[in-house]
UniProtKB/TrEMBL annotation:
<dbReference type="InterPro" id="IPR037069">
    <property type="entry name" value="AcylCoA_DH/ox_N_sf"/>
</dbReference>
<dbReference type="GO" id="GO:0050660">
    <property type="term" value="F:flavin adenine dinucleotide binding"/>
</dbReference>
<dbReference type="InterPro" id="IPR013786">
    <property type="entry name" value="AcylCoA_DH/ox_N"/>
</dbReference>
<dbReference type="InterPro" id="IPR009075">
    <property type="entry name" value="AcylCo_DH/oxidase_C"/>
</dbReference>
<dbReference type="InterPro" id="IPR006091">
    <property type="entry name" value="Acyl-CoA_Oxase/DH_mid-dom"/>
</dbReference>
<feature type="domain" description="Acyl-CoA dehydrogenase/oxidase C-terminal">
    <location>
        <begin position="269"/>
        <end position="433"/>
    </location>
</feature>
<dbReference type="InterPro" id="IPR046373">
    <property type="entry name" value="Acyl-CoA_Oxase/DH_mid-dom_sf"/>
</dbReference>
<dbReference type="InterPro" id="IPR009100">
    <property type="entry name" value="AcylCoA_DH/oxidase_NM_dom_sf"/>
</dbReference>
<dbReference type="Pfam" id="PF00441">
    <property type="entry name" value="Acyl-CoA_dh_1"/>
</dbReference>
<protein>
    <submittedName>
        <fullName>Acyl-CoA dehydrogenase domain-containing protein</fullName>
    </submittedName>
</protein>
<feature type="domain" description="Acyl-CoA dehydrogenase-like C-terminal">
    <location>
        <begin position="479"/>
        <end position="580"/>
    </location>
</feature>
<dbReference type="InterPro" id="IPR049426">
    <property type="entry name" value="Acyl-CoA-dh-like_C"/>
</dbReference>
<feature type="domain" description="Acyl-CoA dehydrogenase/oxidase N-terminal">
    <location>
        <begin position="40"/>
        <end position="151"/>
    </location>
</feature>
<dbReference type="Pfam" id="PF21263">
    <property type="entry name" value="Acyl-CoA-dh_C"/>
</dbReference>
<dbReference type="GO" id="GO:0003995">
    <property type="term" value="F:acyl-CoA dehydrogenase activity"/>
</dbReference>
<dbReference type="InterPro" id="IPR036250">
    <property type="entry name" value="AcylCo_DH-like_C"/>
</dbReference>
<keyword id="KW-0274">FAD</keyword>
């Protein structure tokens, strides 16, 4: 695992890199996208090593982990480090493996079989490590990164406060430079800090006075490195949480905490850049972890459904149980598609930057902030669906701690809050796309105008398509047009005040999310069909099921926006256009789900 894996040539050697959010107005090809079927042999090896580690090392210690035996967690992080699972994002110069982002996403996916440990190691390797990788001085990196890579020290990230969770830039914690310029004195309190009770190194954010230059005299968010044991630094008590109970979550209390000036991370007043760039990575990795957790949970649900007898036969033979299992498998397949497509886009962008050019690396990742937010929202809500249906399949036993459904249900809920709440991320999705359109960075406005002219001109002709997914490709084309139409309708109604209409912004975000998810599923399946890969029949079935579901969501959200943004004749005209755009022959999803469920029940697990 010492060499750096590369993406397949067909992924990296594309003529032009698609801009973030451009999927709404372009038609990407399957060859330009990265999916699990594109994993190199090294990617596959890492997936196997990680999955084996999770099954054979982490899960046997679940009980101790859940009872907050942090010595076990630290020991497991150390063992993960010996396998190279903690150092993929760390440069070789500082003891890391410096691998592509797909590798770290694969690790996040396959280690997510135990929620509490998954959270602990993800905080260590992600938000705990990357601020130092990207913004640390050579001296800071030399001092800390090698020890982070080998698990000698555990890292944490302290941004949130009791009064500034989503609104993180309005922190109350303050940092003041001493008169001799040798130290910073920090006062304040941080909340909900993962690994807070046992970490050794914390990236802490505080407001600090900008001494000179642009913004001089203003207090702006700034990042600092604080070691455990620093005078004036203490932990509050462990939080007793709904889920991920075995992870450490504590407040951090800073009472005249005196740190060397050399522990300033980055520049004074530039902490928001650190925070937001780290969150983008956290979002796509959270998506991969959610997919991995869902895959593990579905395996438990299938095994229980096969073994449980009622009315003289296995409950896996009942149609309503099969429907649940099928929808869970659909979620995992589509989740894999959109998660790895996103990390593939990021790796393509990073391949065009110099490894030492930190600003370019950050810009490359930030350019796909919309996709990162989509992944975070979609995957966390998919996982919530999977764990909820698993509890239902287990029925009474699903409520009992001795069975796996109960803990999975509790552990999943935090993902809709982590890395920016799903509400905040929905606003980011629509807001960033509209901002890019207004700035001329993404030609959304001309596309919306052209679409408006097209729908007002009369019936919209469909393209002639062939193949097993012809109908789904028609649905995708209609979905993109409908989303642009609704975005145009809302923009015309609210103009610059659209940002204040959060319900409308969220509805449009849900439409954008469904377009990306539907397209990712179609592209993945088309790639499988083109390569005659295994499981093509199952993949086609899944894609047809999801496309039907996505169109239902798109139509529902479109109706919500039109009802809010238009009235009278204008509303009637827009509803007529809506009906025209969504008109299609419905698929027999009952038969499709039965077929899919019978396939995975026979296999005893999710097989794609």
């Amino acid at each position: 695992m010492a060499t750096t894996p590369t993406l397949p040539t067909e992924v990296t050697a594309i003529p032009a890199l698609p801009a973030g959010g451009s999927f709404l107005i372009t038609s990407p090809t399957p060859a330009s996208c990265f999916f699990p079927e594109d994993f190199t042999s090294e990617h596959q090896q890492i997936a196997e090593v990680t999955a084996d580690f999770a099954l054979n090392e982490i899960l046997p210690h679940s009980e101790a982990i859940e009872h907050k035996d942090f010595s076990i967690t630290r020991d497991l992080i150390k063992k993960a480090a010996e396998l190279g699972l903690t150092s993929t994002d760390i440069p070789e110069e500082y003891g890391g493996l410096e691998m592509d982002k797909a590798t770290s996403a694969i690790i996040a996916d396959h280690i997510a079989k135990q929620g509490s440990f998954s959270v602990a190691i993800s905080a260590h390797t992600g938000i705990g490590t990357l601020p130092l990788v990207w913004y640390g001085t050579h001296e800071q990196k030399t001092k800390y990164l090698t020890k982070i890579a080998d698990g000698t020290i555990v890292a944490a990230y302290a941004l949130s406060e009791s009064t500034s969770g989503s609104d993180a830039v309005n922190a109350r914690t303050r940092a003041v430079l001493s008169e001799d310029g040798q130290h910073y004195i920090l006062n304040g309190e941080k909340m909900w800090i993962t690994n807070g009770g046992f970490a050794d190194l914390y990236t802490v954010f505080a407001k600090c006075l900008i001494p000179s230059g642009k913004g001089a005299g203003e207090e702006k968010l700034t990042a600092f490195l604080i070691e455990r044991g620093t005078p004036g630094f203490t932990n509050g008590p462990e939080e007793h949480k709904l889920g991920i109970r075995g992870s450490s979550t504590t407040p951090l209390i800073l009472n005249d905490c005196k740190i060397p000036a050399a522990n300033l991370l980055g520049e004074v007043g530039k902490g928001h850049h650190i925070a937001f760039n780290i969150l983008n990575v956290g979002r796509y990795k959270l998506g991969n972890a959610a997919v991995g957790a869902a895959r593990h949970t579905l395996g438990n649900a299938i095994r229980y459904a096969r073994d449980r007898k009622a009315f003289g036969k296995s409950i896996s033979e009942f149609g309503l149980i099969q429907e649940k299992l099928a929808d869970m498998a659909v979620g995992i397949y589509v989740g894999e598609a959109l998660c790895y497509r996103t990390v593939g886009l990021i790796d393509q962008a990073l391949a065009q930057t110099e490894k030492s050019d930190t600003p370019a690396i950050q810009r490359a990742i930030e350019s796909y902030a919309v996709e990162c937010s989509i992944v975070k929202v979609w995957a966390s809500e998919m996982l919530d669906f999977v764990v909820d249906e698993t509890v239902q399949i287990f029925a009474g036993y699903g409520y009992v701690e001795e069975f796996p459904a109960e803990r999975a249900y509790r552990d999943a809920r935090i993902n809709r809050i982590f890395e920016g709440t799903n509400e905040i991320n929905r606003l980011i999705i629509t807001g960033r796309l509209m901002k890019a359109a207004l700035a001329g960075q993404l030609p959304l406005l001309p596309a919306i105008k052209a679409l408006m002219d097209e729908v007002l001109a009369g019936p919209i002709e469909k393209e002639d398509r062939e193949g097993p997914l012809a109908a789904e490709c028609d649905l995708l084309a209609a979905a993109k047009k409908l989303t642009l139409f609704i975005a145009g309708t809302a923009s015309q109604r609210y103009m610059q005040k659209l940002v204040d209409e959060q319900e409308v912004m969220a509805a449009i975000a849900d439409m954008i999310i469904q377009v990306f998810a539907m397209e990712s599923a179609i592209l993945r399946t088309e790639k499988l069909l083109a390569n005659s890969g295994k499981g093509t029949d199952t993949a086609v079935t899944i894609t047809r099921i999801y496309a039907a579901k996505a169109m239902d969501i798109l139509e529902s959200q479109a109706r919500k926006v039109i009802a809010a943004a238009a009235e009278g004749d204008m509303a009637r005209t827009q509803f007529t256009i809506l009906r025209r755009l969504v008109k299609h022959d419905p698929a027999d999803t009952i038969s499709l789900r039965r077929s899919l469920a019978q396939h995975i029940i026979a296999a005893g697990k999710y097989t794609l």
